[in-house]
Design brief:
heterodimer; A: 237 residues; alpha/beta; 4-stranded antiparallel β-sheet; B: 73% helix; binds adenosine-5'-diphosphate; binds magnesium ion
């Protein structure tokens, strides 16, 4: 298997706050890899650094062999590395359809865009019913679906999801996670950040545990689920 | 009745100019949450560039004839078609140059401060404003320069004339054009997305710096057109001419809901109308209170709708 994403000795800070400290991890093509850890551990910062929203202080980020560390956000997106951000961050004052169009901002293949809109509507039928509604009027679950659908419109090779289950009812979480697994079967590589560790580990091929900016543990999803420390700290056993 | 119609005409004319300036404030605020105090100077510089362009194209003592383009000049000034083409050229040249100046100012005075505390770019903007006024004062003239009066003025009933019609029609065409640009085109959608969530817009692949540059081009370009109108309407330009229209237009933007494009347009026309009606209907000798009336309306609107007429209610945003 080829490493699609390979992060080496990455550090990111906000002024004096060292949010990510010298972390290394990788994601193979076709995998679901999850990054779990308590609130404030540095998971979102890691994703934002990969996406180019924040500049790293040190380290390298290889995507298919090319170092993309420090590239501006729009150039990272152009490489089909797509982040679905924490808190959904859909465009409230745009319709569902316009949000999807924004997801396809860099694409010029209007036929492909059309067929992808049909595809995301199949994945999330609720969205097609709400196509002309403003994003801000959707429920939390629908907004998460829209955020994911919008991300998919950018044709991700690597899809990074930041806490897709946050604040959602269990039924909706189930829908979202079913779709995540479906996307993996369709060939999309996924880096999943979650606080809901048991759920994330149950669908992940591999996982990393982050603690105060560092990676403290790694293993397959099953290994981490069975790990005593993980159980104590994140699974509430 | 006559005076009412006359003042409505004046109000719409003034309103069109205010709206064209106001949208520059609102676009920048929508995207950078910054009040571009130098915007009034874009209007002023635009008026000067417009004046010189117009002189170059129409005044026999200037440029064209010396370049051997005398016949072209005669065509411009000698027929209605020529005049129309000449004014279109003046607007395009002035808009483009002033727009480029706006982009340059953003690049050197605001972008380096993008992550600085919010007061920093504000102070930088005041600095730019003072710089531009003094540059014009020192390098061009401290006294008013008469605007070439080559626009043929046909007087009509009710205080209407061809210039007012020209100003109103051109303003409305430009405002509708901008509205369409922002709601329909790709760059317009990128601007809206950036103003709603800059980080998310970046994740869509939008180049934020290009969007900001576009914003700093469009606002000054349209502000410059308002500057030309102002020069034509009042007959002269001067280095400090941006001050009152700038404040009025800013007020219009706040009245309509700062950050909201249609709000700025609505606010501009409302403010022009209030001002004109106040002039027409305040008792003799009190017309100087027109600005008091305008600000009174602003205060009343803000009491009931703190976000402005078309702005989001502030509560919602929290
Ligand atoms: N914009 C920011 N400015 C300053 N500190 C931040 C910012 N964002 C996050 N942090 C800090 O960085 C650390 C990691 O945050 P984050 O990456 O959001 O963690 P997680 O996603 O794992 O909850 C935390 O201590 C947080 O307070
Ligand atoms: Mg987070």
């Amino acid at each position: 298997m080829e490493k699609m994403l390979n992060v080496e000795h990455l550090s990111t800070s906000y002024g004096k706050i060292h949010a990510v400290r010298d972390i290394s991890f990788y994601v193979n093509e076709g995998e679901i890899v999850t990054l779990i850890g308590a609130n404030g551990a540095g998971k979102s910062t890691t994703l934002k650094t990969i996406s180019g929203l924040i500049k790293p202080k040190a380290g390298k980020i290889f995507f298919k062999g090319e170092n993309i560390a420090g590239l501006p956000g729009h150039e990272v997106t152009a490489k089909h590395i797509i982040q679905v951000p924490e808190g959904r961050r859909i465009f409230d004052r745009m319709t569902v359809m316009e949000n999807l169009e924004m997801g396809a901002y860099l694409r010029k293949d209007s036929e492909g865009i059309k067929s992808d809109i049909n595809w995301v509507f199949e994945l999330f039928p609720r969205l097609s019913e709400r196509a002309s509604q403003k994003g801000g009027t959707l429920s939390g679950g629908e907004q998460q679906m829209l955020a994911m659908a919008r991300g998919l419109m950018g044709k991700p090779e690597l899809l990074m999801l930041d806490e897709p289950s946050m604040g959602l009812a269990p039924v909706v979480v189930e829908t979202i996670f079913t779709v995540i697994q479906k996307l993996q079967r369709e060939g999309i590589t996924i880096l999943l950040v979650e606080q809901n560790a048991s759920l994330a580990l149950s669908i992940a091929n591999r996982g990393y545990v982050m603690e105060t900016g560092k990676i403290s543990l790694t293993g397959t999803g099953r290994e981490l689920l069975a790990n005593e420390e993980v159980q104590k700290a994140y699974l509430g056993h | 009745m006559g005076i009412l119609i006359q003042q409505i005409v004046n109000g719409v004319t003034l309103g069109g100019m205010y709206a064209l300036i106001a949208l520059g404030y609102t676009l920048v605020y929508g995207i950078l949450l910054m009040i571009n105090f130098a915007h009034a100077e874009m209007f002023m510089v635009g008026a000067y560039i417009g004046l010189f362009t117009l002189k170059f194209l129409s005044d026999p003592a200037w440029g064209m004839a010396r370049l051997g383009l005398g016949p072209v000049q005669e065509f411009f000034t000698g027929s209605v078609l020529g005049l129309i083409i000449m004014f279109i050229i003046v607007f395009i040249v002035t808009g483009a140059l002033t727009g480029l100046l706006g982009v340059l100012i953003e690049r050197v005075a605001y972008r380096p401060l993008r992550n600085a505390p919010r007061l920093a770019p504000l102070i930088s903007a005041i600095g730019v404003s003072i710089f531009l006024q003094n540059a014009v004062l020192l390098w061009i003239d401290s006294k008013p320069i008469p605007f070439p009066d080559i626009f043929p003025i046909v007087t009509l009933p009710y205080g209407l004339n061809s210039l007012k019609i020209f100003i109103v029609v051109t303003s409305i065409v430009l405002l509708l054009g901008l509205d369409t640009l922002v709601s329909r085109t790709k760059i317009g959608k990128a601007m809206r997305a950036t103003s709603q969530d800059r980080g998310a817009a970046q994740l869509m692949g939008i180049n934020i710096n290009s969007v900001i540059a576009a914003t700093f081009f469009i606002g000054p370009a349209l502000g410059a057109v308002a500057g030309i109108f102002y020069g034509m309407y009042y007959g002269a330009v001067i280095f400090n001419m941006g001050f009152f229209p700038g404040i009025k237009a800013f007020t219009a933007a706040v009245l309509g809901g700062i950050g909201n494009l249609r709000g700025a347009m609505l606010g501009g026309f409302m403010l022009g109308m209030i001002e004109a009606l106040a002039v027409g209907f305040l008792p003799a000798g009190y017309s100087g209170y027109k600005d008091v009336v305008a600000f009174l309306v602003l205060i009343i609107v803000l009491i009931f709708r703190p976000g402005g007429l078309l702005g989001e209610s502030v509560v919602e945003k929290v």
